[in-house]
C-alpha cells in the first residue's frame, strides 16, 4: 500500500536528505516542495499542498539565528504562524505532521541533558519563534503531531559548521573555535533516517504523539567537533585553537549547553541516533565531504 508523503522546505539541507531517504521506500509516494514552491505563511497554499497527503514532514523554517534577532516578527511568521497553518491543515485532512524544531527552545543553563518534557525558556528570538511552532503542533494535533528537536545540524546540501571548517582549512594555518558551548553534532542524513522511521511508526500506531529529541547521542564542543573533523579529514587537529564564545560576539545569544536527552524513543520502536563521533566518520566518507577534505589537504 502506497503512502503519500509531503516534505516542505525540500530544497534545504535536511529536506533534501529526507527526500533521498524516502526515495528508498517503495511504499512512499513523495512530494517535495521548496520554499519557492510553497510559502508556509500562506494558509490557502498550505491547505492545497497538504490535501491528499498522509504524512507531512516540515523542514521549512527561518534558520538564520542572528537575522531573527533583528526581525523576530518575520521569523515568527515562518516558524510560528507558518507551522500553525501546517498543523491546522493536517488536522483538517487527518494527516500526520512531523515538525522539526530546535534545542534553542531551552535556556542552555543545565548541567544534565534536557528531557523532552523539560521547561522551555528560549534566550533568543529564534528560539522563541520555534517554540511558537511547537505550541501550535501540540495544540492543534494532540494525537497526530510530532515535534522533533534537533541541533548542530550538518550535511552536504548547505552551509554548516563542518563544511566551513573544511573550507577554512585550505585557507588558514590555524582556526580559533569556541570551546565553551556544548551540544550534539548531528548529521542531517541520520536525522532524515530517524524522521522517516518515526513517520512509519506513527502510521502503524506505534508512536505516541508528542516531542522527541532528534540529535546524535553523546556531546562535545565546537572545538571538539572541529578537531575531530580535521583528524578524520587527514588534517592536523593541532591547528584548531580553543577560545571562549566571547571571542565571537553575535547579535543572538547562544545557549551554552544544548545537550538533549532521548528517553522518548523507546516508546516508538525507533532507536535513538548513533553517537556524534560515530556519525561524523560516516558523513565524511560521503563523496561531497571527502572532496572538501581532499581540497583542504591539497591547499593547506
UniProtKB/TrEMBL annotation:
Has the keyword Transferase been applied to this entry?
A: no
Record keywords: NADP, Oxidoreductase
Please tell me which top-level EC class this enzyme sits in: oxidoreductase
An annotated GO cellular component:
cytosol
- SUPFAM superfamilies in alphabetical order: NAD(P)-binding Rossmann-fold domains (SSF51735)
Q: Which GO terms describe its biological process?
A: dTDP-rhamnose biosynthetic process
Role noted for this protein = Catalyzes the reduction of dTDP-6-deoxy-L-lyxo-4-hexulose to yield dTDP-L-rhamnose.
Q: What is this protein called?
A: dTDP-4-dehydrorhamnose reductase
Amino acid at each position: 500500500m502506497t503512502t503519500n508523503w509531503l516534505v516542505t522546505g525540500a530544497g534545504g539541507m535536511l529536506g533534501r536528505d529526507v527526500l533521498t531517504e524516502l526515495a528508498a521506500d517503495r511504499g512512499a509516494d513523495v512530494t517535495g516542495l521548496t520554499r519557492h514552491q510553497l510559502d508556509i505563511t500562506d494558509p490557502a497554499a498550505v491547505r492545497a499542498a497538504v490535501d491528499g497527503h498522509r504524512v507531512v514532514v516540515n523542514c521549512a523554517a527561518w534558520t538564520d539565528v542572528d537575522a531573527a534577532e533583528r526581525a523576530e516578527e518575520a521569523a515568527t511568521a515562518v516558524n510560528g504562524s507558518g507551522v500553525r497553518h501546517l498543523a491546522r491543515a493536517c488536522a483538517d485532512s487527518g494527516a500526520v505532521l512531523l515538525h522539526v524544531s530546535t534545542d534553542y527552545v531551552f535556556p542552555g543553563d543545565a548541567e544534565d541533558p534536557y528531557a523532552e518534557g523539560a521547561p522551555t525558556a528560549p534566550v533568543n528570538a529564534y528560539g522563541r519563534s520555534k517554540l511558537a511552532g511547537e505550541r501550535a503542533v501540540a495544540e492543534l494535533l494532540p494525537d497526530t503531531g510530532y515535534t522533533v528537536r534537533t541541533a548542530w545540524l550538518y550535511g552536504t546540501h548547505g552551509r554548516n559548521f563542518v563544511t566551513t571548517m573544511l573550507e577554512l582549512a585550505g585557507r588558514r594555518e590555524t582556526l580559533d573555535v569556541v570551546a565553551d558551548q556544548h551540544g550534539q553534532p548531528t548529521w542531517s542524513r541520520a536525522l532524515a533516517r530517524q524522521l522517516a522511521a518515526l513517520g512509519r511508526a506513527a502510521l502503524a500506531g506505534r508512536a505516541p504523539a508528542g516531542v522527541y529529541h532528534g540529535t546524535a547521542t553523546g556531546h562535545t564542543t565546537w572545538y571538539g567537533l572541529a578537531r575531530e573533523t580535521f583528524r578524520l579529514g587527514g588534517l592536523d587537529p593541532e591547528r584548531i585553537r580553543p577560545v571562549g564564545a566571547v571571542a565571537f560576539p553575535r547579535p543572538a545569544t547562544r545557549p551554552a549547553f544544548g545537550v538533549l536527552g532521548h528517553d522518548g524513543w523507546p516508546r516508538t520502536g525507533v532507536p535513538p541516533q548513533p553517537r556524534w563521533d560515530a556519525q561524523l566518520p560516516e558523513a565524511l566518507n560521503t563523496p561531497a565531504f571527502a572532496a572538501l577534505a581532499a581540497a583542504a589537504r591539497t591547499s593547506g
